[in-house]
Specification:
411 residues; alpha+beta; five-stranded mixed β-sheet; three-stranded antiparallel β-sheet
Amino acid sequence: MASQMLTQERAINPTDVSANALYTDDTWREPFAFLRAEMPISWRPESPFGGYWSAVSYEHIQQIELMPEVFSSSWKRGNITIAESINETEFPNFISQDPPIHTAQRKVIAPAFGPGQMVGLEAQVRERARILFDALPLGETFDWVEHLAIPQTLGMLCSLFDISFDEWRELKRWSDYASGVSADNLTPEYRAEWMQQMGEMLARFDRELEARRALPPSDDLLSRMVHSEAMGQLPPLERLANIALLIVAGNDTTRNSISGLVEAFDLYPQELERLRADPALSANAAQEIIRWQSPVTHMRRTATGDVEVGGQMIRAGEKIVMWYISGNRDESVFPDAERFDVTRENARRHIGFGHGIHRCVGARLAEVQIAAVIDEMVSRRLRAVPTAPPERMASPFLHGFNTMPVRLEKD
């Protein structure tokens, strides 16, 4: 009876944690700390995206991730973000599918990031990092995002697609539109521009896909797609959605973690000294910055039936948002969670890339790219000193930076 009473009264979230200002003003920590302590599963009746449940604790996020039959990712039920679909458009990429479609399509992409491929990819990543750092000025202000984080990650993406690096600006623009989940974008004008940009992207990649179709299968992602049974004959909307997913996943999250390094080392300069004393810590530091920065703020699921989680009854059809940014600050899992600690013993337990069947397929490549940047900073004895406040992204979906003015100093 007590359990029944508990589930009938919804814990009402007093803060709309989808509000852009929490992220542009960097004031998200306090409301999430309150929710973790007082109502780890809560209902927000109103927001620009409608009513939504929030899961903010590490335990409950993992629980939801491990129940894909109950908590659907399908675009048919609303997709994977707090917004309904993507700019009111169905967006059926493989992570917004449930098994068995998700399973079959993921199997097409996953081998591109297997152990054998990673040997060659890591060599490319480290060579690109060396070239980029060679070109960075010492003692002069520049934008870390544009001159390092973006070309490091988009350069790798161009390699995965086997297209020219000269197209990186177009890829970035399309990525920004494809990931543009924000209350600011819920306008007819933005939707029209979004459709225009996505149409241009599809036309560009359709040319590449058709070129690959005429060639023998190879290791690049586009070839894998076009020569597979699960993805070789996708209709236009699915082609668009999957290309957009690969572009966003291949650069946004990694570039925002690389940018987050500047802030982390500025706040905790002793951690850079620890890395200089023991460069082998760079792999763990890469895991820690993903936890600390949490480049993907949330993912959303939709209940397929009535289900109780954390003493709250989620009704069929309701959306529940898993706030990774909060789960990665859960003190019950990560003691002194606000601290950036390159020696953190359980940094690898972060949920920055999700958990369960939808965990990021390119997570290992992201970790290698971040570690390569750390290794260059350490071996060159460089320190990136912020010269002005960064411009933070106005989004409750991706947690990152538009610009980050810095000056490189050599110790």
